[in-house]
From TrEMBL:
It comes from Neodiprion lecontei (Redheaded pine sawfly). Residues 1-18 form the signal peptide. It catalyses: glucuronate acceptor + UDP-alpha-D-glucuronate = acceptor beta-D-glucuronoside + UDP + H(+). This is UDP-glucuronosyltransferase. The lineage of its organism: Eukaryota, Metazoa, Ecdysozoa, Arthropoda, Hexapoda. GO terms for cellular component: membrane. Pfam families: UDPGT. It is a single-pass membrane protein.
Length: 512
């Protein structure tokens, strides 16, 4: 925590050249903005002239910081996301494509987006989120400046593709699969098929939709926007919200930087009533929250009933992020709050454990504050995040699809009473903190590196310039094969020649 405070002060004192920075973060999800906006705020604090395109105001004000917002409909208002719990990853990806196209069009069909594409402004660098919003790459083409991508997750198949990063399917599990790095035959099979499917469906099904949006809304000259994939491959660098303790060790290109935890802040004192509540709990408090984006009131009724039943039996108090003023049949030991200062609650010594959906930012806060976990993941990367936490010994995994009252009760009692969970999270936390420069400082450094050098040519592997034949060495393989065949033929010919020459001698011997 001290480390963070110090870094903020250093950041403020550092000053800057005052470069003009454009940030493009159109995804209408709080969990995304909570990763990207700390970086943009930090760059403004360093004196850069920052303009960001965001779905709603982030609550930061400065004279050198401007927000272009649009009338966004938050992701969770597009129907109940809980209805998709059963969805397999193949359909879930189609759903993501659908949401991506929908929200991208919503963001582009606005006066802010239109004014920006016609604007005469100049920018020195663009920082853009890599998610389902690729039409925004047209701004990179328009402003013709270096650009840095940023991801709210770790390296996905798409990101590996953009940067030409090797991620062998044999030991690098997809972010969307709940696998570790020791995969069984069937897990490797699923990992391979899933990765090939992600790549193929993106290229042939999804990207043409984004290209059409770019052509429709962002063609300031009336001409078509160049291939978005072409623009994307020019990315100088990517900042990733990941770290190997939340993932698995794997290869990274020089221009892929892990900056997990940019959103971590020094904790603030809790509001007085919460302080009193936490202080006075006799046996300790359990926090239950599905994060800022997911609403627990939307969970299926039978799941809510099971959770209430389990909580009622606990000897602990339960603080539940519940997005309504009232809760039917609320157990006596449950206190509800529509909004809870999660990060600050996590620092309270009377907190026993956190029941979380395992969103990566929540998980980082939890590990940072050394709190053990009961994980009830819902989708996306959450299942994998909790699986990895479980393998590191600081979490119990409860499957939302088969969740019962007893399961929840047993998992909570187990994690709350077995000291192994807290010991392990302390170990992981110490390991992470021990090796981290503050990630926000690292991220600011790399953005300024690209600014200073007008790109990141020295970090960029030439793999993105190679074609399929060169990358897989098909030409070299063919040449070697040819050489082998020629050698064989030559050896055979020579052998035959020698045999023929020696044959008469043998026959003459026989004749003797
Ligand atoms: C930022 O400015 C807006 C309007 O100018 C104001 O309503 C808001 O309270 C300010 N926020 C902060 C954190 O100062
Ligand atoms: C774009 O915005 C205009 C004006 O707000 C609206 O009439 C139109 O339906 C929108 N188009 C799409 C495809 O959302
Ligand atoms: C809660 O406990 C802490 C530490 O014991 C103390 O500093 C704080 O004042 C207490 N808060 C309230 C509202 O009692
Ligand atoms: C909040 O609870 C009340 C009373 O149970 C209910 O009528 C209302 O529909 C709930 N609101 C939401 C958004 O679920």
């Amino acid at each position: 925590m001290n480390l963070i405070a110090t870094c903020f002060v250093l950041g403020l004192a550092g000053g800057g050249e005052g470069a003009r920075i454009l940030g493009l973060f159109p995804i209408p999800g709080k969990s995304h903005l909570s990763v990207t906006s700390p970086l943009m705020h930090a760059l403004a604090k360093k004196g850069h002239d920052v303009t960001v395109f965001v779905p709603f105001h982030t609550g930061f004000n400065a004279s050198n910081y401007r927000e272009i917002t649009y009338d966004s409909i938050p992701l969770d208002k597009h129907g109940n996301i809980m209805d998709y719990l059963n969805m397999n990853i193949f359909l879930a990806h189609i759903f993501l494509y659908y949401m991506g196209t929908l929200t991208t069009e919503m963001a582009l069909n606005t006066t802010g987006a239109q004014a920006l594409i016609k604007s005469e402004e100049k920018f020195d660098i663009i920082v853009m989120e890599q998610f389902f919003n690729e039409a925004f790459l047209a701004y990179v083409h328009k402003f013709k400046c270096p650009f840095v991508l940023i991801s709210a997750f770790g390296p996905t198949a798409t990101i590996n593709g953009i940067f030409g990063n090797s991620a062998p399917y044999s030991y690098v599990p997809s972010e969307f699969l709940p696998f570790g790095d020791r995969m069984t035959f069937f897990e490797r099979l699923e990992n391979t098929i899933a990765n090939l499917y992600f790549d193929g469906s993106r290229k042939y099904y999804y990207m043409p939709q984004q290209q059409a949006l770019a052509n429709k809304y962002l063609s300031d000259t009336g001409k078509e926007v160049p291939s978005l994939e072409e623009i994307e491959s020019q990315a100088d660098l990517i900042l990733l919200n990941s770290h190997h303790i939340f993932s698995t060790p794997r290869p990274y290109m020089e221009n892929m930087k892990n900056v997990a935890g940019m959103h971590l802040k020094p904790s603030k004192p809790l509001p007085l009533d919460l302080q009193q509540y936490m202080n006075s709990s006799k046996n300790g408090v359990i926090l239950f929250s599905l994060g800022s984006a997911m609403q627990s009131i939307l969970m299926p009724d039978d799941k809510i009933k099971a959770l209430k039943g389990a909580f009622e039996r606990l000897p602990y108090d339960v603080l539940w992020k519940w997005e309504n003023d009232t809760m039917e049949n609320k157990p006596k030991n449950v206190r509800i709050g529509k909004w809870l200062p999660q990060s600050d609650i996590l620092t309270h010594p009377n907190l026993k454990l956190f029941i979380t959906h395992g969103g990566i930012s929540s998980l980082m806060e939890t590990v940072y504050h050394e709190v053990p976990i009961v994980g009830i993941p819902l989708f996306g990367d959450q299942r994998r995040n909790i699986k990895i936490a479980e393998s590191k010994g600081y979490a119990d995994y409860v499957d939302i699809l088969t969740l019962t009252e007893n399961q929840v009760y047993n998992a909570v009692m187990n994690v709350a009473t077995n000291p192994k969970y807290r010991d392990n999270v302390k170990k992981v936390s110490a390991y992470w903190k021990g090796e981290m420069n503050h990630p926000l400082d690292v991220a600011v450094h790399w953005v300024e590196y690209v600014l200073k050098n007008g790109g990141a040519k020295l970090l960029k592997a030439t793999v993105t310039e190679q074609n399929f034949i060169q990358y897989f060495l098909l030409d070299v393989g063919f040449a070697i094969l040819l050489l082998l065949i020629l050698t064989c033929i030559l050896i055979r010919k020579t052998f035959r020649l020698l045999c023929r020459k020696s044959r008469p001698k043998m026959t003459s011997k026989k004749n003797n």
